[in-house]
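## Example record

The block below lists the input lines for one assembly entry, exactly as stored, with component labels intact.
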Amino acid sequence: MPWFRADLHLHSCLSPCGDLECSPSAIAATAKERGIALAALTDHNSALNCPAFAEACRRNRVAALFGMEVTSREEVHLLCLFETVAQALEMGQVLYAALANIPNRPETFGDQVYVDIDEVILGTVDKHLTAAVSYSADEINDLVLARGGLFIPAHIDRAVTSMQSQLGFLPEGNYHAVEVLRSPCSLDTGGYTQICDSDAHFLDDIASRWFEFEADVPDFSGLKEALARGAIRLSIDW
Amino acid sequence: MKTSDLGTALGYEPVQQDYTDREISSGYTSDLLSDVMANAAENCVLVTIQAHKNTIAVSSMAGISAIVICNSRPLPEDMIQAAAGEQIALFLTEKNQFTVSGEIYNRLKTE
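Predicted C-alpha cells for the full assembly:
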C-alpha cells in the first residue's frame, strides 16, 4: 500500500492570528508544491473558509478534509475534521453559538475574513474566534463523533492551550489520534496514535511538519483506517 | 476553618456535599490545572473558574479538599458527579477569584 503525506492543521486568513496572504487558494497551491497529498483547513472555531478551500484543493489535486481547531472551555485546542464541507459548516454553526461573545478587534487581534476561490472577501466574523466555546473537551469529542468526524487533541505537548498546559495530563477520550510537536512526546500519550502537523499561520510554514499514512487512497476513510492501525510515520522522527 | 465553613461562614453555595468535613489550612487560586497540580498544597481549597470534570481529576491527584467555582460558571452534571465520587466538596459563587481568595485568606488569618 502506498504512503501519503498529510498536513491536517492549517490556518487561513479567517484566523485572526493567520496571515492575510493565507487564502484558501494560496494554501492549497503551497500544499501541492510541498508534496502534501491530504490537507485539512482548521481555523479557530470556524469552517467558513472551507468552501473555497474545497474548490482550491480540487483544482490543485490535493485531497482535503474540512474542520476547525476548537478552543474548549478548558482552553485546550482540539482538531475536529470532517469528510464534507457541509458537516464542517454545520459544526461551525454549533460552535459559533457556543463561542464567548467577545467582539474581535482587528487592530489588536488581526482580521477574520472569509473569501472565495479568487480571494474576494465575502465577509468578516464579528466574535473573536480564538476565544473559548462553552463546551468541554469531552462534549466537543461527543459532538464530533455524533457527526462522524475525526477528533484529535492538538499539539498536546505545547506550552500553551494544550492538554499539557491546561490540564497537566491527557485524559482518556475517544481520540482518533493525538497531535504532538516533539518526538518523543513529553506528555504520556496513553497509547493513542500520534500525528504531527505544521499548525501553519503563514504560507512559508505549510508542511514544516507533516506525517505520512499508509492507505489505498488519501481520503477520509483511508486516513481513519491508517490512524486506527497506527500506520503512521512522523516527519519529526526523520 | 472546616470545609463546611465555606458554605456556612462565607456563604458560597454548596453544590456537592458528599465529602468528609476536613480542616482546611490553605488555599490556592489558579485557572491553569497544570499549575494547580504542581503547586497546590494538600487539603487546600481551590479557587477557580475551571468548571469541568478534569478539575476534579486534578484536585483528586493533588489532594485538594474543596473547590470554589467563581463567577457563577455553570457546573456540568458530570463534574458534580465526579466530585461526589472523589469526596471533594464543591461550592459555587457569583464572586470572582480575587474576592473569594481575599475572603478565604482573611478567614484563615484570623484562626
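The domain at 5-109 of chain B is CATH 3.40.1390.20 (Udp-n-acetylmuramoylalanyl-d-glutamate--2,6- Diaminopimelate Ligase; Chain: A, domain 1). The mean pLDDT of chain B is 95.
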